[in-house]
Amino acid sequence: MQMRFLPSIITALTALTLTSCSTITAEQYEATALTSYSWQIKYANDLTNQPQPRIETFATNSVLNRNGLKPAGVVVGPDDQGLWWPTLPPRPSVDEVEQRKKSQEEAGKPELMKDVQYKLTYGVGNLQKTLPTNYDVYRQVVKAYPQRTPLQLTLGVNDNSVEKAEPVSK
């Protein structure tokens, strides 16, 4: 009884796969990686047993990496992935931690969080489009950018992200 639905399920999945991703060739592009350090503290009535404590973010410093080039200003790096990082933001003081604490809450220890957000901007005709991407695409652009090698971009579901970038051989 269940087997009669299998061909229609396979057809639907195939159609979804074929329509969900597309590829384009881009000759103008720029990859960015926004690297950030942020201090965060967890607050809860019981830090050891409360499953979802309240999280407060304190000072944050960020640096925008473009195409693998060293950003202007005071930066640290590059790291093992070729990314430049900002200097550390100031650690929250005891007073700042206590100011955000609600009655009956405990405050956890300050934690330094690292974050990277990758984006790719590319030209389509006279328009520019910026989409989220990943480390692998960022690195492919860093390698291709000095020679301005055209890239074939594979877009994600509904063309809402760039999943892959490959050099186009001339």
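That was protein one. Protein two is written in the same sequence-then-structure order:
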Amino acid sequence: MEIWINPACSKCRSALSLLDAEGADYTVRRYLDEVPSAEEIRAVLDRLGLEPWDITRTQEAAAKELGLKDWPREAGERDRWVQALAEHPKLIQRPIITADDGSAVVGRSEEAVREAMSRSRS
């Protein structure tokens, strides 16, 4: 299991606390320091079963500067959204947990974190 976090995020810290309390085996990726490539973002989106606009933090200053709220949310614009996330990783919703079974979740709730853990147990 891998968890993409921003250490300043309370939801990320809560997810890490739960993973630790449950003795989960995971690696941490501080995605603001180790920025995911466009290809990695596409792969995570596939695992999540979501579109890039579904994991975009549209209230961030960068989102407002880019005018993201006015960008079309359609298949033809997917690459543009992915590129924006790769260039401005702070826009990526967090935490994202990739489970060992090939799936992923946005771990903003205890239930989502537990779901990722259950998918990563052998």
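The longest strand covers residues 2-5. Keep this in mind for the problem set.
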